[in-house]
Amino acid sequence: MSLALPISSPLFGVLVPAIKVKRVLVTKTAINRFVFVAIVAILAGCASLDRQAPGELAPPPEPIELADVPFFPQTEHQCGPAALATVLAWSGVETDAETLSPQLYIPAREGTLQHEIVAQARQHDRLAYQIPAEPQALLAELAAGNPVLVLQNLGLNWLPYWHYAVVVGYDPEADHFILRSGTHKRHTTARRTFDRTWARSNRWAIVAVEPTEVPASAAPSSYLAAAFELEQAGRVDAAQHAYRSGLKHWPNEPNLALALGNSYYSDGDVDMAIDIYQHAIARGAYSGPLYNNLATALAEREQWAAAEAAARSAIALNDAHREHYRKTLTTIRCRQSNSCQP
């Protein structure tokens, strides 16, 4: 058992404002010419990010235990590296606690911050997804074969003792959870005891999965946020895989198509972006931002009639970004006639 350090700001999942996003989402040329709706503007409106309130545990009909999940016994104050190594190794990353420790452990504080756990998962091209703060979500991940990294307070609210562990199973008959914890490969703890210690961290827990997989407890907006943060971390290929996986899971979610198209557009692949936007619209997953960005991309290729039609479709939806779409239409017209002012 060792020290983990919960961050004092809101838990992972809250997105930074658009002005703080470091990675440019569109080309400089496009910024100068058109009004492009970046995915961060969409996420800013998803305040709840699909999070659910804690609920009663509905026990599974059969015991669940991921017995083959690797075990890295922790050394002093190294519960964070040990827990992250456990879930990363299970997902196929070749690593161990000793390798991860220099990137995670803060000697002055003798512990590891939550956001560093998440950041390091991303640096290994894994989708770090914060599951809903309820026991049922934890069980759903276990049933899908995903061990869950949790933050517990093994002390008291007024005298905390923070600890990272990995939940690998649940036995409904004994009513206990099974964890990789500290120096114990198979630590069992009564459900109610576990839930009390977990609740003291606001039930913070993540899974770290390959970007070709969608976590069992995922909801569209919070999944999109996790994939977008992967892209912001510079793991663009992994993020694009995650967007595509999300689209396979939720084919009618326009914001996932928007994010995927924007990602290709920002990397200069305008034709791929157009293809993604058009395919999403054709299958009914349309939105104002999707039409607007399609208009922008088509205008980059000087397909003026199609660009104007897409911009008009965006305006017709009459959503909160309507004035942006009007500016896009105006810019398309002046660009076509070479009458734009510098």
Automatic annotation (TrEMBL):
Pfam families: Peptidase_C39_2. SUPFAM superfamilies: TPR-like. Residues 68-179 form the Peptidase C39-like domain. This is Peptidase C39-like domain-containing protein. It comes from Alkalilimnicola ehrlichii.
